[in-house]
Amino acid sequence: MPAYWMARARVDNPEQYKKYADQVPAILERFGGKVLARGGKFQIMEGPDAFKRFVIIEFPTFEDGVACFESDAYQAAAAHRRGGGGVVEVVMLDGM
């Protein structure tokens, strides 16, 4: 059953954030991740508008998505954005 990595982000330092973003596609691919939506047009229908970037990634299973997030490679890449590049919230959701 597929699972979905849903993230919302705020980029505070584009140069620093790019160091993270450049590494992520190859990491996702290793875990079977497929980007369904990233950036682009959006409209906040309800809730705070603290985030301006939204991402949805499909994984073959919930476990694959969690393994990707917890992997050494992803955590090393995420250190770039956590070091001042921006703020991200990530939720893994089991599909139906």
TrEMBL record:
Top-level taxon of the source organism: Bacteria
Domain called DUF1330: residue spans: 2-95
Residues in the signal sequence: none
Pfam families according to UniProt: DUF1330 (PF07045)
PANTHER family recorded: BLR0684 PROTEIN, PTHR41521
Record protein name field: DUF1330 domain-containing protein
